[in-house]
Amino acid sequence: MEQSLTGTVALVTGASSGIGEAAAAALAAAGASVALVARRRDRLDGLAARIRDEGGTALVLDADITDQAAAHEVVQRTMEEAGRLDIVVNNAGLMLLGRIEGADTLRWRQMLDLNVAALMTLCHAALPHLLQAAQNEPRHIADIVNVSSVAGRVARAGSGAYNATKWAVNAFSEALRQEVASRHVRVSLIEPGAVDTELASHNTDPDVLAALQRRFGSIERLASADIADVIVFVVTRPSQVAINELLVRPTEQAD
């Protein structure tokens, strides 16, 4: 039996496009008030308007969460303006592929800052409020959903730095899950395969783009809404049920 999200507040990072945008809309449709976090204010305003037009509640928080102070501020503003925090979806991410030899290591730092450090900071900032929500109505449970990747399970040549960030997310999520499980904060890891989003467009190297085309060009990729459905499924389980990890590939993706 699904739990209702009515009366809850969900914070979603990377909400200006792709999985984050779809997840925020789906959580709002399921009854949650949503705090929308990303850098592109115009995109967030458009999403918030759509949510409100459909009877939902949305708070726009444009921020660069790679700045620790900004990450803490979005949590603080959510508490101040929405009054509580029940669900955090850490979706913001960057995928900059390329070989390790000769790499521009500043690109590695960009991914570490967003994919790993920002996610860890958001979890740390949100945790006291999630623990409090888990003790109270309406659900007596709270949720952290960290969006990782198949790349957090399988390392590949040409993807080493990105692999490293996603393996870090997986390890951090499992350690955090063990720390807070007894206090009714569920930590769930979602590992999408190929999804039709802007993620691949972060790459401009012709060799990288050609490799992506060879690997995924002939298959039907997942839609952002497919992963949003999974996120809503995870956070609406009864309080005694925790979905710790879900790998979700397109049917045609073999690896």
The SSE string, one letter per element, is EHEHEHEHEHEHHE
* Helix percentage range: 40-55%
The low-pLDDT segments are: none
Main β-sheet description: 7 strands, parallel
- Strand adjacency order, main sheet: 3-2-1-4-5-6-7
**CATH class placement:** Alpha Beta
For the record, what is the CATH homologous superfamily label? NAD(P)-binding Rossmann-like Domain
* Number of structural units classed as domains: 1
Rg calculated over all Cα atoms: 17 Å
* Distance from first to last alpha carbon: 33 Å
- Assembly state here? single chain
Structural class: alpha/beta
Total strands: 7
Structure, described:
The mean pLDDT is 96. Helix content is 45%, strand content 15%. It has a seven-stranded parallel beta sheet with strand order 3-2-1-4-5-6-7, with helices on both faces. The protein has helices spanning 18-29, 41-53, 68-82, 105-134, 160-180, 206-216, 224-235, and strands at residues 9-13, 33-38, 58-62, 87-90, 142-147, 185-192, 245-248. The protein is globular and about 50 Å long. It is of the alpha/beta class.
